[in-house]
Amino acid sequence: MTRFGDGRDWFFERPFGLFLHWGLYAVEAWHEQLQWRGGVPRDEYAKLIDRFNPKGFDPNHWIDVAEEAGMEYIVLTSKHHDGFCLWDTAETEFNVVNTPYGKDILAQVADACHERKMPLCFYYSPIDWHVTFYPAAGRSHELDDAPLPDDTPDFDRFMDFTRAQVRELCTKYGEIHGIWWDGGAIFEHDDPSLNAMIRELQPNCIINNRGFGEGDFGTPERDKDECRTAGPAFEQPTQACQALGKESWGYREGEDYYSLRYLQKCIDIVMAKGGGYLLNAGPRADGTIAPNEQAALRELGIWYRAVREAFIDVEYAVEELSTIDMLV
Asked: How many whole angstroms separate alpha carbon 19 and alpha carbon 17?
């Protein structure tokens, strides 16, 4: 697989990352798409902002968990589909500084990651269930009752809003190593200038393929068949993503978890093809990662550190891959 030949090549040198889905939905501990899947009205969901006060939040705790798992970068949800922002954005009041907690989460995570040399990427969803100018049109992952009677859908304003927020992410927190779009494809709108802006502001930033233009890498999700059937090796840079739990990416009480053996096999298959693997844990409402999820990641790290060198700077042969597939 051809590398980029620039600062983005960190992506190939650090193939195992920690995904963190965290936001207002952690308060209810059910699903990151609580508002949509649970049919919660917008105004009712927005009241969760008054209950978000993660007194146990410490970014070093997250980094410790990642390092114990052998993970070498972090991807954090700056804004999920609910529209709630974990940073002090000038574009909407629906953000963390207007909660009882009152402090910029991204700033604290960025400072800790810079100090500890942990590459940091920001997940960003252009889908937004909160802003009243969102151009809802009955697409996937849009609220069933949107737009509401008092909404004023405006696609141009929405794109300006998206651009301004991504610019903030690329200018307020020092060096970041990735923008992880999610949901841009539903708009069927190509705007390469967005990724171009990211590349200009953050030259070492890698961009996925879920935005408004061609990205740097593909993102098969939940170990779908394409991970297993893409041939002896991925032809393009690829990063599979998966969660510890089967039901939710955000923290879920009573979650049904994958076995460590299953996760090991999935990581094995993807990395044997030259891909990277992004494994998710959902912090609880207090900002901590649940002890059972910490334990699972710690155990996975023991295995991963023992086999890691087998996935770095190697050539991928059909015979070797067939052996791996036979074991699954």
From this structure: 7
Alpha-carbon Rg of the chain, whole angstroms?
Answer: 19
What average pLDDT does the segment 67-72 reach?
Answer: 98
Contacts of 289 (CB under 8 A, 6+ apart): 61, 62, 65, 281, 283, 297
β-pair partners for 243: 280
Nearest to 62 by CA among 311, 286, 320: 286
Q: How many CB atoms lie within 10 A of CB 267?
A: 24
What does the alpha-carbon distance between residue 159 and residue 185 come to, in Å, rounded to a whole number?
13
Cis peptide before 147 (omega within 30 of 0): yes
For position 7, what pLDDT does the model report? 97
What percentage of the chain carries pLDDT values higher than 70? 94
Strand partners, 245: 257
Residue 211 near residue 166 (C-beta atoms within 8 A):
no
* pTM check: above 0.70: yes
Structure tokens at 122: 């920001």
Give the residue-averaged pLDDT of 170-177.
98
| CB-CB neighbours of 314 under 10 Å | 12
At residue 314, the pLDDT reads 66
DSSP E strands in 47-177: the ranges are 74-79, 120-124
**Per-residue model confidence (pLDDT) at position 230:** 65
Angle (CA) 80 38 296, round 5° = 60
Q: Hey, what are 20's tokens?
A: 């963190």
Laid out side by side, the sheet with 120-124 consists of: 206-207, 178-181, 120-124, 74-79, 16-20, 276-281, 239-243
Q: CA-to-CA distance for 275 and 148, rounded, in angstroms?
A: 42
What secondary structure letter does DSSP report for 242?
E
Per-residue pLDDT of 98-151, as tens digits, reads: 999 999 999 999 999 999 999 999 999 999 999 999 999 999 999 999 999 999
